Structures are given as structure tokens and as C-alpha cells.
Amino acid sequence: MQAAIYRSFDDPEALEIGQFADAAPGSREILVEVHAAEVTFMGALIVSGCHQTRPATPFVPGSDAIGVVDRVAASCASCAEEPACR
What are the helix (H) ranges across 1-86? Predict the structure, then answer.
């Protein structure tokens, strides 16, 4: 999948657009094809290395996104009934 990737804690210019390993939804998860994502103040602190949380690198920052459901775990029956729900 294509993603915005940080390989180190640096400033926003260190962002790379590249390929990241395809994800598969885990138990009780859905996979969303993201159409838009926001950069939050906390996210900016994390990528710059100024936040107490430091995810393992490389990582794809962000937690707020808008998109379409792509794949659904078997245990998520309510979403599985409507493919491509938004």
C-alpha cells in the first residue's frame, strides 16, 4: 500500500511517500482505504521526536482519517454486510 512513511524522528521534510507492507485486518478490525488524513499537533510532535511516545520506525503517522472500508475481519459482521461503506 502507498503511505506517508517516517523512517526516523525528524522534521516534516523527512516524510517519504512510498510503499508499505500490505496490511490485513486482524481479529475485530477493518482495513480502510484512506482518502484523506489530518496532521494533528500531537502527530507533529511524535514525528519530530518531541513527544514521550516514540513508535518503532519505520512508521505511518496519524490516527484520524476518512475513507472507504476495503477489507473486514470475519468477526466484524456489521460492516461485512455492506462492502465499501464509508
Answer: 41-48, 77-80
Mean pLDDT over residues 38-63, rounded? 85
Domain 2-80: which CATH class?
alpha beta
Residue 18: half-sphere exposure toward Cβ, Cα within 13 Å? 11
Query: Where along the chain do its domains lie?
Result: 2-80
Q: What is the widest separation between alpha-carbon atoms in the chain?
A: 42
* Per-residue confidence band for 6, with pLDDT thresholds at 50, 70 and 90: confident
Q: What is the pLDDT of residues 56-79, one digit of tens each?
A: 988 888 888 889 888 888 777 666
Cβ count near 62 (within 10 Å): 16
